[in-house]
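Sharing a chain and its predicted structure for anyone who wants a worked example. Both blocks are below, sequence first, tokens second.
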Amino acid sequence: MSKNKVLILLSAITLIVLFPSCRSQKQRVNLTDIAHPKREFRGAWLSTAWQSRYKEMDSYGMKSYFTGILDQMHTDGINAVIFQARPYADAFYKSKYEPWSAFLTGTQGVAPDNGFDPLAFLVDECHKRSMELHAWLNPYRASSSSDDVLSSDHIYFSYPERFINYDGKLFFDPGIPDNRQFICDVVKDIILHYDVDAIHMDDYFYPYPVAGQPFPDDSSFTAYAQQQGFTLEQREDWRRNNVNLLIQDIKHTITSTRPWVRFGISPFGIYRNKKNTPDGSGSDTDGLQNYDDLYADVKLWVKEGWIDYNMPQIYWEIGHKTADYKTLVEWWANNNFKQPLYIGQDIKKSMDFSSQPSGEDQLSEKMLLSRSSTSIQGNCFWPAYELIDNYKGIADRLQTDFYSYPALIPAYTHMSTKKPKKVNHLQESYTSTTHSLRWRSKSDRHDPKTAQYFVVYRFAKGVKEDMDNAQNIVSITKENSIVLPYEGNNKEYNYVVTAVDAFHNESKGKKKTITL
């Protein structure tokens, strides 16, 4: 074991002692799980808004660029890409409802050359690498500034009364039911035509408040609030209800269309400050709040099962005076109702700040803080570009210290617990150039409970077959075969192959002894 890994394990033990709120005293920590967990969400946000690089490329250049990005992220251990497919009521895909994005081609409504579809390409390329693709949508934003030139077929020109101008930007009015339906139509269009693994939304619900500028939704409040049972004094409750209805409707749209597709939210990192909650249930922080400022009642969505994973953006450093990273991680871990929880990390904040006398960055402490909690199942990094650029060596660190072995996505057992059937006909295959291990399995993308990918484990002769240890995984693949190495034709191994369904439930293993 390397010196770095020894230090990691020792640090983990320290964290467990220091932060008992992350685990009950009856639970025991598996040190292998902390150093090399078999299941862990390892995501990165690949944004497109305000990225001028795309409109400077033709389709061939973009394909090459995306391929290079995915190769690098796969090498870094990333297993889920959060791709911003709809930044401002526009599209990085062929949409039935909205124009091509100006961030893609330079002019809204102008399609890429050669019929190129970035979302379709990324879905296929991610899946080739056994990575997930989550389509990231911003629900209410319609323009980024007053200078934006909208395409003539933009929905704004058909229904201007359904939009609000606030701080020089256009927004769908969240209080109008037809807008909720439109956003659900957009979601349905994506999941019907693209093999995405999840629909993802971030923290932009009602817009971030601007001092001295109240949000001008008098018209929709007058039209709908009273008939929904809200009084003038309950406008904030009405706004929260509008967002609640959107979240419920999107979840219903997904479940009734393709029930294996997940719905995730990455909210702003503070739900509510303790000082603003009469019962003191908020976090010991002092900043913008989801509940009070963005009208996003994230806790309710998790509790009611309207979302399938929660990924708060805790974009501060450990020791921040008003929004301490450690305080917020523990708060979310204690307020997520045992549902899937991943932590959003800001790369620069993790790599630029230190809380140790040695001056070491905070990446290790942050990673181990999440891994020492049974309530947290992974991390997601913002932005992917800094990971690709290996900012201050973060990619190197992930490869050598934290993501040196592959990990399966945590199983979504709240959606399904049934395991797929075992693989069968596991056998060796020879050609003039390769020695392969092949198998058969029932697999249907439209039946989420069948095999969607496979995990291959290898154990030396006489070694216990521990499939809970990620160090024994040699491949995670969508193919029904792997090429075997040659090791002199005198070494015997037991290979075990399992099937994994769309909810990431894993079957029992099928074993074969092979001489390499």
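Comments welcome. The radius of gyration is 24 Å.
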